[in-house]
Amino acid sequence: MKRLVTALLGAMLCLAVAACHPSGGGGGEDQKTTFNIAFNTWLGYSPLLIAKEKGFLAKRGLDVNITFLEGIGEKNAALLRGDIDGVGHTADSAVTSAAAGVDGQIVYVFDESYGADGILASNDVRTIADLKGKKVALEPGFTGHFFLLSLLEEANLSPSDIQPIAMDTGSAGGAFLAKRVDAAATWEPWIGKAKERADGHVLVTSRDKPGRIIDVLYMNRATIAAHPAEIGKLVDAMDEAIAWYRTHVDEGDRIMAKFWKLPLPEEKTTVAGMRFFDRAANAKFFGTAAAPGQLLQTVTTANRVWARAGVIKKPIGHPERLIYYDGVTR
Predict the structure, then answer these.
(1) What is the end-to-end Cα distance of the chain in Å, rounded?
(2) Which residue, 123, 127, 88, 124, is CA-closest to 108?
(3) Could you tell me which of 181, 141, 148 has the C-alpha nearest to residue 307?
(4) pLDDT tens-digit series, residues 289-311
C-alpha cells in the first residue's frame, strides 16, 4: 500500500511457517499444497485472508500460512532465503525487490488504492508544480514516495525540485497538520484530517490516478515454476472470496476488522478508500504478454522514477518479466 502501520501487530498474529509441499495433483486433504506468505499490516490483502477463513483455499487442496514482515528489506531477506514463497507488496515495491536480487513475479492484484493515499498541501500549493522548493514530508522508498515521484514526473519536475523531509508515512500526516511542512505524502486517516489545518487541503489522491497504487501478491519464481496449477487455484480462491464479500459485506468487514485488529468504523473507512480486484479486473489490468495492460505501465513507471530518485541503483532490465500472466488469464 504497507501501509496502515498499527504498532500493535508486529509480533502478535504470526502463524508458524511451514514448508511448501507438492500437491501431487490430487488436491486431497492429505496432499495439500501450503504456501507461506508474509504481509505487512494492510487491510488490502484481505482477499487471501477471507479465502482462508471461509474455506475457499481448503476446498481446492490449498492452505496459506500467514506471517508478518513490515519492511521491504525484511521481506526481501526472507524471500532470498527461501523462508517464504511470497509477500504482499505494492507494485512499486516489487521493483525494489527485483532490484535487490529477488527473482519474483506479480501473480495477482489484490486491490487498488482509490482515495486512501494522497498528497496534502498548504493552500498556496494548488498544483503539483507548486511543490517546487517546498518542504514535503514523506517516507523514502515507500508507496507515498513513489506516488509523489510519479506526479512530479508528470509535472516535469525532478526529485531535487522539492525539499524531502524523511519520516514514516503516518508521521508525515501529523507533521503537515502541525504546520512543520508545506506538504505531505500520506494516507488515511490523515487524508480525511487535512482540513484540520486551517490553511490545508487535499491536493491529489489515488482516486485521481487509478491503478497507480496497487497491492499485489509477489511470489518467488521458483515457487511459481514448481506449482503453476496451484497458483491458478490460489487466484480462483481469492476471486471466490471477493464474490463472497460483495454479498456478505457486514460479515466480511467483521472478519477483516478482527484479523487486522481495527475498530470496525476504521475498517469501513479504509475499505471505502480502496477497491478489490476480482478475476475480471485482474485480467484487464494484467492484459497479456502480447498486449499488456496497465500493470506493466505501473511497474515501468516505478522502475523509472525509483532509479531517477536513487532509490534503486539502476533500472531493472525487462520489467515485463515481473509479471506472471498465466495465473489470472488462463
Answers:
(1) 27
(2) 88
(3) 141
(4) 999 999 999 999 999 999 999 99
